[in-house]
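Technical appendix A lists one of the benchmark inputs used to test multi-chain prediction within the project. The record comprises three sequence entries:
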Amino acid sequence: MQDAPIPATAPRPRSGGLRVPLLAEALLLALAVAAYFLFPYNLGFLTRILIMMIFVLSLDLVLGFAGITTLGQAAMYGAGAYAAGLFAIHVWADPVAGLVVGAAAGAAVALVSGLVLMRAHGLTLLMLSIAVAQVLQEVANKARDITGGADGLRGIRMEPVLGIWDFDFVGQTGFWYALAVLALVFVALRLVTGSPFGLSLRGIHESPARMAAIGTPVYWRLVAAYALGGGIAGVAGALAAQITMLVSLEVFSFALSAEALIMLILGGTGRLYGAVIGTAIFMAVHHTAAAADPFNWLFVIGGLVLAVIFFVPTGLLGLPTALVRLFRGSRNGRP
Amino acid sequence: MADAALALDRVSAGYGATHVLEDISLTVPRGERLTIIGRNGAGKTTLLATIMGLTRLHGGRIAASGRDITGMATHRRSALGLGLVPQTRDIFASLSVEENLLAVGRGKAGLEEAYAMFPRLKERRRNGGAQLSGGEQQMLAIARTLMTEPDVLLLDEPLEGLAPVICEQLMRVFEDIARDGRRTVILVEQHVTAALAFATRAVLLANGRVVHDGPAQGLHAQPGLLDRHVGVSLGHRDGG
Amino acid sequence: MSLIANILIDGVAYGMVLFMIAVGLSVTMGLMRVINLAHGGFALIGGALVHGLLTRAGLPYLLAVPLAVLGTMALAWPMERVLYRRIYRFGELQQVLATIGIAFLMIAGVNYLLGSSLLSIPVPEAMQGAVDLGFRKVSMHRIVVIVAGLAMVACLYLLLDRTRFGMRLRAAVDNRDTAAMLGINTGAIYAATFCLGAGLAALGGILGAELLPIEAYYPLRYMVLFLMVVAVGGLGSITGSFLAALGLGLVDTASRYLVPDFGTIFFFACVIAILAARPAGLMGRA
């Protein structure tokens, strides 16, 4: 019980999914389809949001469910991006095969680094996770012959998705492709988090000591969760490489890890929807505020983060609950 | 009893959202020797911690020397004359024995008194707090709280896990501390016999409530009461 | 021979700067159990203040530096009272985010007032030259940094080891509740420590501006570096911070001299190796 309890993960309503199967998922899907028709000239931006949602979902599994506090999720995203990019250039430009390669690369990085990281806690874990991403970034920077270094990995030309849909200039194929992958990842995560494995992760999050006492191999479960999350982050990175046809050193950046964390907290951890909604809100606000002035954007995001942490600790998804609780007057005791 | 050393009025308290103490009312006159007895988990430690403001108060009020201290910061309660010797002793491990004493209270003036009370501590003054034996740690914990010159001394199971000879020595120290009603002493103890011999009044706590409150002497005549609420017969102690 | 001397002098100077900035972070993180990602912001504020005092107000260096340090502490105090004392109670994830938010606001604030370009800190002529130590010439600035760093170590040692404030601080680090129960005003100790840490960071930021240039993004650019010193040293340990700052300063400088292409990789590999072997840091308690 080293970690302080994190209020953001306390309430876990398992409603909706049980009563009308996949109703909320269908609603989100409908929203995505509607966005496609509402903003036909912003498909590139919408696709970036979808990819980011996959990445933040991977973080939700690692952090929201398993309780692994990391600031280095970009390590796996970047590994997936470079692996998929290199695979497409040198081996085979099939998108789906590239996703598999990206997932494998992300999972491999997470597995190897996880063997060390999952033994650490708190600040040490944060620092180690950052260090892994920084080392990979520097390796990619120095291996200029292979990765293009600071110029980025160029020359990615993908074949049609499933041999049918060609990537087009407007980004229609990219959008549907990313949306399909997001939907698959979401459903897969729904299944994983509801499985005995997912439940044991929640148990570990709440009390590692108790789970260890009832015979759960806590360390290996965490390594497995980290590797699984790494695989999904790798998918997100691969998707980004394929659709933007470019991989830059920024895929490993600390800013990417930190922003994903902010998106997740904005939406609320441990619920999957939180990752999706937080990402959409963050990216939309970023799109409008940063367009005006990047420093202005820091004012906005800094204030937003503080406001959420101080006033709606369960994330924006918890806002209705927080309001209801406020009006009922039954305040939850905070430690 | 406006100038009672300590007065609890329908206090409910616990940690976080949980309630450990329910509706406790207790008035302790100045100079009284009170013992609080109960099973493990009855809420004895929580009661002392609540008096010091270290728990979450769900309801009720607490006053010390006629002054309302409900919601007052812990360090200010110490300044008002409340002093707790915690069950876990909590010696500051990164401080030497002497620093443990000097960090609190009046500083050098009280030091000689503390060493006069526990000469063993003077011998070990340069040792780190973590290097002491259990008995020495308890002596240091007591001496350290006395450095804050408490009017009301709260002792949380001070005899726990100590050799009989040390226990006797500590009980003599407590007698000395409480002599002539100079200080109010509230003793929580599993050694029921020693506690009842020391105290003039006994409070039985069960499931966070006061189930008996009366003269300590009277309890000897009611062994059934102790048996029921404390799970001990006189002469034996609940090791737990 | 001259290479080794260069590495030693530059590395030690760099280590001293890291120490001054990171030690406050380490003590506050050990004391309040708070992960503070905005600590570098105080180095930025110190640098920005001294920049303003030197270039706009035209004050002499020896007056401007202490004023900037005091000014930073004066800003840190209300921040501690209003923001940080609430953050202490959060879970570590919330702490990370809240303090990133604070770092963002600091960056945006400095940029709003002074812009995003490099903030120069002109040093007096006396600090610009080089001193001949007999075997070689050493930049006066390096010497000032090293002497100031060592003086800080000595002052901190005396403050913590020999004063009542130091005893109370160590007591509060050991056990906050017990310290409060014994009449120690832990809230005041926190505030004083926080301000002291902020002041040291400001001094480190000012003196280290030649190595870590002051500009609006400073808190994020060097955040990881400062946090790594703390993690490697062990939370709350001043000796640990000193060893870690000196060690990492030397490692970083040496690898830049010796293996310039792989300096960063080598640096982070060292950090990973140390933390993997000692998750609580060099001097940390497990």
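The mean pLDDT of chain B is 88. The beta strands of chain B are 6-14, 21-28, 33-38, 56-64, 67-68, 82-85, 152-156, 184-188, 201-206, 209-215. Comparable benchmark entries are summarised in Table A2.
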